[in-house]
Design brief:
The protein is of the alpha+beta class. Helices cover 52% and strands 24% of the residues. The chain has two domains: 8-60; 65-150, PH-domain like (Roll), CATH 2.30.29.
Length: 152
């Protein structure tokens, strides 16, 4: 099983902090204009920030994936553990993505689009760009091979 690049923790903690700032801003506005100013807003924001950071670190510790002969397998989830199996014969195409924050910390994601109606894509976040390119090509080649093997 492979793990994600450690820098993904930075991205996830930043996402948690941005969410905390947004929720804290809403709470501060409510407190200022509706309830009256009180220090409880800062305490709530601090607790949310700590919980978000802890969740990001826990999320990193449980995220695993492996590519074997049959398909792609992923394990993730802090509160609810999710195990996903993607047979290569179901893979339609594979992309790499690099958003601005990912580029800033030197990361990329691989998105695997599958045939199906529910959850038709699987994303592997937090990979070094070189690893993402290698994984994308390997998944593409294995999907092509399985297509020929599955032909009737």
């Amino acid at each position: 099983m492979e793990t994600l690049h450690p820098n993904v923790r930075i991205v996830w903690v930043l996402q948690a902090l941005v969410g905390t700032v947004l929720v804290g801003g809403i709470l501060l506005a409510l407190d200022t204009y509706v309830l009256g100013v009180g220090p409880w807003v800062l305490a709530v924001a601090a607790v949310l920030a700590l919980l978000g950071a802890a969740h990001a670190l826990a999320r990193y510790s449980v995220w695993r994936f492996v590519v074997d002969d049959d398909g792609l397998y992923l394990e993730r989830g802090v509160i609810t553990r999710v195990v996903t199996s993607v047979p290569f014969v179901r893979v339609q195409h594979v992309d790499t993505q690099r958003g601005p924050v990912q580029r800033l910390v030197g990361l990329a994601s691989v998105v695997v689009y599958t045939a199906g109606s529910r959850g038709a894509d699987v994303t592997i976040p937090g990979l070094a760009p070189e690893r993402a390119e290698e994984l994308r090509e390997r998944l593409r080649e294995l999907a092509i091979e399985s297509e020929h093997e599955d032909a009737v």
